[in-house]
Every structure is written in C-alpha cells, then in structure tokens.
Amino acid sequence: MHALEGLEYLDGPAASIRTAVRALPLGRARDALRGLWLGHPLHPVLVQLPIGAWSSAAILDLFPGENRAADRLVAVGLASAGPAALAGWVDWAEQRPRQARVGLVHAAANITAVALYGGSLLARVNGLRSLGRVLGFGGLSIATVGGVLGGHLAYRQAAGVNHAEAVPVLVEPGWHRIGKLDDFPVGEPVRRMADEVPLVVVREDDGRLNALADRCSHMDGPLHDGKVIEGCVECPWHGSRFRLADGVNVQGPATAPQPLFTCRVAPDGSVDVRLAQA
C-alpha cells in the first residue's frame, strides 16, 4: 500500500481524469453523489449492492439448480456498479495526490471486476455456464482487492472522513479570549486560536461575530484563506461552503458541518468564544 501511494507516474493520468470528472455536467447531482444530504460519502453505501449481489451469486453458483437466480444477481451487480462508480469518481476528483494514486488502482481493480462479470453474464446467456462461473469467481476476487484498496483509502488515508470531528475533544469547556473587536475587519475571515484549535472568525456589518473551526471538515483546508460569499465561508482548496451562522455545509465536497463557536463581546471590546452546544 505504501508503494502504491508513492507511484508518482500516476499523477499525469490522474490530472487528466480529474479534469474530465470535474467537467461532467452534473449540476446539483454532484453534491447528491457526494452524500451532502446524507452527512457522509454516498459511495460506500452504493457499493454494497454490487458487492452483495456478486457475493450472493458466487454462493449460489456452488449449488445445483440455482443458475437463474445466480444469473440475475450477476446482472443486478452490473446494473448497480455504474452509480456506485460515478459517486466514487466524484469523491476521488477532490483527493490529495497520494490518495488519488491509490484511488486510481482501486478504480482499475473495480473496472476489471466489472469487465469479468460482464463476460460472465455473456457466457451464462450463451450457455457456457462453467466459463461464466470461472469469470464470476475471478471478478469477485478482483472486486475484493478493490475493496481492500478502498478500505486503505478510508481508514489509513482518511479519504472521506470528517476532519473536524476531534474539535469538541480538543477545546476545553468555557470561554476563550481571542482578541479585541477591532481586530476583526468587517467581512474578512480572521484566524484565531482557542486552546489548540484554530478558528475562522468573521465580523458582520452589524458588529456580530461568527466563529467556526478553521480546518475544513473535508480535507483540512484553511478556511481563513477562503472567501465570504452570501453568509458562507468557502474553502480555498476544494470549494466547500459553510454557513457562518451555524456551520452547516451548504455545498460539497464536504459532507460534514463545521463545529460552531458562540461569540460574546465584553464592554471593553474583548472577544470571547466557546464551543456551541450541539
């Protein structure tokens, strides 16, 4: 796995594919495929259907009299692989280089599995049942390799996880002094610290302050380097937008909101923040 992460020659093909994926005219469906509505990536959910169908087909292939059921499951797996792959490509297009390299090999394994299962279904339809079974078992083996690579992406490389999840643990309860009101220009993101956690603070026209955890929940992007757009702060790395009033993610690729901090201004102009209650 470490060797796959270091395959720099994959960066060229990755750049071309990334451009093509980002150019797809998906509109609002892009955020739907990312899982914005779900609260976490959709791709791991969608892959359950093809993997489940193909695994079940492999079991049925071991028993006599289950040919038709196995054939149908192979077909179901093929039909459901497309949406799962599309969701995966949309996620992959916003990953870091080392993640993208593993992701390309992950995709190549899954494409190979789909090709083997396509051949398996064709052989079954034409009465070549033994060949269909062999191709099916080969497809399941390759799909399993793809699943192992996907697990590495998620659990070792933290692709698709909420990078802001630890904020409530790192911030001590109570109020934290972060400066004076005059330190925060109207409409400009400003970086401050609460304990060991960086914050992005934005002052409204009426003097009200909004504060969110600064590191983007998608890939740790520095929100204080982003833009304030229509009451939201936009991550400069991948374009995720978070509503300043409550931290809700209104645009992906981030699927998790930003931790929100409550602000107060003392009579002398000092500004304090504390982690807002969930």
Quick synopsis:
The protein has 278 residues and is α+β, with helices and mostly antiparallel strands.
Describe the structure.
- The protein is 46% helix and 17% strand.
- It has a six-stranded antiparallel beta sheet with strand order 1-10-9-4-3-2. Strands 5-6-7-8 form a four-stranded antiparallel beta sheet, with no helix packed on it.
- The protein is α+β, with helices and mostly antiparallel strands.
Question: Characteristics of this structure?
Answer:
278 residues, alpha+beta, 10 strands, six-stranded antiparallel beta sheet, four-stranded antiparallel beta sheet, Rieske Iron-sulfur Protein
Number of domains: 2
Structural class: alpha+beta
Show unreliable segments. Answer: none
The count of helical stretches stands at 9
Tell me about the biggest sheet? Answer: 6 strands, antiparallel
**Mean pLDDT level:** 95
Strand content: 15-25%
Biggest sheet, spatial arrangement of strands = 1-10-9-4-3-2
Order of SSEs: HHHHHHHHHEEEEEEEEEE
Distance between the termini: 38 Å
Total beta strands: 10
Rounded radius of gyration (Å): 24 Å
Helix content: 40-55%
Oligomer: single chain
Overall body shape: elongated
